[in-house]
Protein: MerR family transcriptional regulator
Organism: Agromyces albus
Amino acid sequence: MDDWSIQEIAKLAGTTSRTLRHYDDIGLLAPSRIGGNGYRYYDDRALVRLQRIMLLRDLGLGLPVIAEVLDREASAQHALLGHLEWLRNEQERLARQIASVERTIGALEGGERLMADQMFDGFDHTQYKEEVEQRWGKDAYAKSDAWWRGLSADEKAAWRERATTLGTDWIAAFERGIDPAGDEAQALAQRHFEWLRGIPGTPGGGAGGPTKEYFLGLAEMYVADDRFGANYGGPAGAEFVRDAMTVYAERNL
Amino acid sequence: MDDWSIQEIAKLAGTTSRTLRHYDDIGLLAPSRIGGNGYRYYDDRALVRLQRIMLLRDLGLGLPVIAEVLDREASAQHALLGHLEWLRNEQERLARQIASVERTIGALEGGERLMADQMFDGFDHTQYKEEVEQRWGKDAYAKSDAWWRGLSADEKAAWRERATTLGTDWIAAFERGIDPAGDEAQALAQRHFEWLRGIPGTPGGGAGGPTKEYFLGLAEMYVADDRFGANYGGPAGAEFVRDAMTVYAERNL
DNA sequence: CTAGAGGTTGACGCTGCGTCAAGGTCAAGT
DNA sequence: ACTTGACCTTGACGCAGCGTCAACCTCTAG
């Protein structure tokens, strides 16, 4: 008989018997013959198929796809081209992750600078301490400060990114000239509300979310103070944001 | 109560309630409070922890590692540096895979050239047809040829690589001047035997492996024909290989 | 006759949740 | 009071590809 036992063919192809049993289970590669004792035996045609399987597997293709290719249900080119996209996307993902990890490590080694960051809705955290304390009390500032300082540099970056995204969305909405009381602007106000809610220790943080006073107070401050307003496209944009927020507050808070 | 329901905190952190239950299950993030009805509730401290979890998770860290970092059992720097290695290795792996896939696609598009490849132990497949037929008959050549043509370009490359590796190992052994009858050289002869066995359709392919005649015939041919001998470091190397193979054949075949 | 190598069929484990399934709870509307 | 409907709970399977026991035959050599 010109065939091999399961371990023999496994060695020839550089794999394991367990793998071959698995391939049998899922129908990818059946033994060419099964002995009366239940033993699996493979011939040279099976070896060729197995070698193709190993090759495609090493290229990263999934077993179902390999089965399609080998059974002529799909062309190898097509499958490989699709797979190539996958691989490239994965590589980009990894590149981004590597960059993020490097930046994070750098930040940690840099002593985890906590200051010179933005908070309280885009404020530099320490620079505007007086305004915050004056408006919402020393306690509000202290609690928020403690929370903020507890975050790592990257976490802060994430928060800033959320703030930035929200800001640019506000600006885009303003520039399109939509109605501050319309659905779209109100949806933004809703997001603004949720965002504030995510800052523990402030009058806005907590399950209930910002109080009406805090929400309206912020809205007015965006207009009154250009340092805030800058985050929303300047005085005109800030007015738009304030209007939308005011409508939202009246309707929901 | 300054806390949130499971869905609320999930939205605040940009994840799902299922994930939070999972984190509870594995002990990564327990709810700060559990209602009499079994509901999970999370406070601001839990939110901060959750946000850190999401950040580290986005960097690609595993949940157990994240737990260690957050519980101060391991430093973030250390964990991230280790992770960075992981990521770089993965990226290299992907790069190699991408290159392989591209080469394979190119080969397929190139019409899958089957000739100008090596076989029958390093022979150019078609170039030495006569010798092969003369030594082992037309049938041997035809069967092996059919098998060989059935392989893809990459599969052939894999076979050549195995041949090359074996060849360089032989050469290295020869240059170190070891005993052809010693354990090391005999182990190489064993590998040579296994390798020949993996070529179906030849006098060497099949469960039993090469016959003694085929094995010895090849060994002599390595010495007699420089085209073979070149694969084993020239005439002197070929003699070493022949001696080792002869000993092996006498002992085991 | 027995040991040892090798074969068989289950079945769990791993990573990180997504996705039902079956069934309580709660606020709102009728 | 009753019914929705939204949200909560605890299981438990599924995925990709095998590694790794476990418990139990089978074959070969001494």
User: Anything to note?
Assistant: Chain B is about 65% helix and 5% strand. Chain B has three domains: 4-72, 75-111, 118-252. Residues 16, 18-19, 21-22, 26, 37-39, 57, 62-63 of chain B lie near DNA strand C (CB under 10 Å from a C1').
